[in-house]
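Can you give me the bound-state structure? Components:
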Amino acid sequence: DAGITQSPRHKVTETGTPVTLRCHQTENHRYMYWYRQDPGHGLRLIHYSYGVKDTDKGEVSDGYSVSRSKTEDFLLTLESATSSQTSVYFCAISATSGVNTGELFFGEGSRLTVL
Amino acid sequence: GDSVTQMEGPVTLSEEACLTINCTYTATGYPSLFWYVQYPGEGLQLLLKATKADDKGSNKGFEATYRKETTSFHLEKGSVQVSDSAVYFCALKGGSGGYNKLIFGAGTRLAVHP
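Here's the bound-state model for the whole set.
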């Protein structure tokens, strides 16, 4: 199994509070991603990183920010959590990008509930 | 933009039945196509992939053929087992979104009964 650890695995918080989810990898992979999984929507990309301090937005980035100060860590922050951000969040990593690659390795997910 | 459409689930089958999960896509250029599987309580893992038209991906008895003329990548298995019960996601990369991002369909839940 790919060395990906997400923390916390479960969190309940209140509307308006800040939340940070952490993804830690031991594979030294260049690319890291944050997805959210919601019924009927599959997985939607929030943000991704293609190197230290290099990040870009995905399709549902509003209300989220990310940081990557080290290769192994990719943080997802909800500055002021809302109930619409209740979801399961998955971190994924990939060694390379390109037409003949594409295997993403996923963490086990972080379930966030915003009351 | 790029998108992936999967048949709605859940799909409920008896053990040893044949499986087809439909997947169609919209993308510019020549995307690569993937099937990922999510077992209960776990993250997604790659099941199979195809990187160009007419390629067939296969793994664990599952197959899917990249059909550019019908923009489809249907997942098939001749005889399902209870252990195949999971959620299956079709995905693409390399369309207008580039090769850095994987675009997923909504997922299809499969339940196989003994």
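A couple of observations. Chain A touches chain B through 29 residues (CB under 8 Å). The CA atoms of residues 3 and 26 of chain A lie 5 Å apart.
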